[in-house]
Design brief:
Distance between the termini: 31 Å
Largest sheet: 6 strands, mixed
CATH architecture of the largest domain: 3-Layer(aba) Sandwich
Number of strands: 10
Structural class: alpha/beta
Organism: Marinobacter zhejiangensis
CATH topology of the largest domain: Rossmann fold
Number of helices: 8
Bound molecules: adenosine-5'-triphosphate
Strand order of the largest sheet: 6-7-8-3-9-10
Family: Belongs to the ABC transporter superfamily.
Order of helices and strands: EEEHEEHEHHHEHEEEHH
Shape: globular
Helix content: 25-40%
Oligomer: single chain
Number of domains: 2
InterPro entries: AAA+_ATPase, ABC_transporter-like_ATP-bd, ABC_transporter_ATP-binding, ABC_transprt_ATP-bd_su_PQQ, P-loop_NTPase
Radius of gyration: 18 Å
Protein name: ABC-2 type transport system ATP-binding protein
GO molecular function, one term: ATP hydrolysis activity
Length: 242
């Protein structure tokens, strides 16, 4: 399923934070939303997930407007926020079952979906463990499993690897890429880390609320006359990306 943002602008009070942002996410692709701290990535996620109300522009999922048919559009979205949102004292299974209930899944369907996702994320053996006993990488995997319980077509991840060590970051990133490949999931992965982005990815460069580029990494380098993604980012924004 495609996600289309058209002419999205947003202000906190009088401060413009997103200015006329338009892009389309293609079905089954991994898209990197690349921008330094303060670029507006979390604000964009807030709008995509309806935590924030759209002020200008619209967002459509498979043609369904988030503004006009929010419930139908939101059913297609799974989200992993920057801050860990699991209950540490509940078990992995309880966290998933609670979330499945919020999405209106029956107990039976919820149990089946939990088992499927835990298996896929190699977490079945941890189902009865309180989340507090899991390391950071495993907690993040539980959050992604949870976001996929209702079988959304689009997965949004806001800096999901913050706080993880390098090997866990790489594993998580590879895992999500595999989901695109296996399930045709459309992914938007926000990051300020260039090493999480690959030249074949569709890369959206957000800087001070403006979308400066929306192309794959090869085109990005070609268009900026550079030979690496880090140099391309610097050429576009005048800033270093970490
Ligand atoms: N609730 C708020 N009220 C006022 N200004 C805000 C609010 N939230 C964010 N901002 C400002 O909006 C701008 C964009 O912030 P946002 O969090 O969307 O960026 P970001 O790219 O996600 O950065 P980070 O990686 O640091 O979260 C920043 O200048 C920030 O200070």
């Amino acid at each position: 399923m495609t996600l289309e943002a058209s002419s999205v602008s947003f202000r906190y009070g009088r401060e413009p934070v997103l200015s006329d942002v338009s892009f389309t996410l293609t079905e089954g692709r991994f898209h990197a939303l690349l921008g330094p701290n303060g670029a507006g990535k979390s604000t964009l996620f807030g709008l995509l997930t309806r935590l924030l109300a759209l002020q200008q522009g619209d967002i459509r999922l498979g043609g369904v407007s988030l503004k006009k048919q929010p419930a139908a559009a939101m059913r297609q979205i799974g989200v992993v926020f920057q801050q860990n949102a699991l209950d540490l004292d509940l078990t992995v299974q309880q966290n998933l079952m609670y979330h499945a209930g919020l999405h209106g899944l029956s107990r039976k369907t919820a149990r089946n979906r939990c088992a499927q996702e835990l298996e896929r994320f190699k977490l079945s053996a941890r189902a009865k463990d309180p989340v507090r006993q899991l390391n950071g990488g495993h907690r993040r995997r539980v959050e992604i499993a949870r976001a996929l319980l209702h079988q959304p077509a689009v997965l949004l991840l806001d800096e999901p690897s913050v706080g993880l060590d390098v090997p866990s970051r790489e594993t998580l990133n590879a895992h999500v890429r595999q989901l695109c490949h296996d399930d045709g999931l459309t992914v938007l992965w926000a990051t300020h880390l260039i090493e999480e982005v690959q030249p074949d990815d569709q890369i959206l460069v957000l800087h001070r609320g403006h979308l400066l580029a929306d192309s794959n990494g090869h085109e990005l380098c070609q268009n900026t006359g550079t030979s690496s993604l880090a140099d391309a980012f610097r050429a576009l924004t005048g800033e270093d990306v970490s």
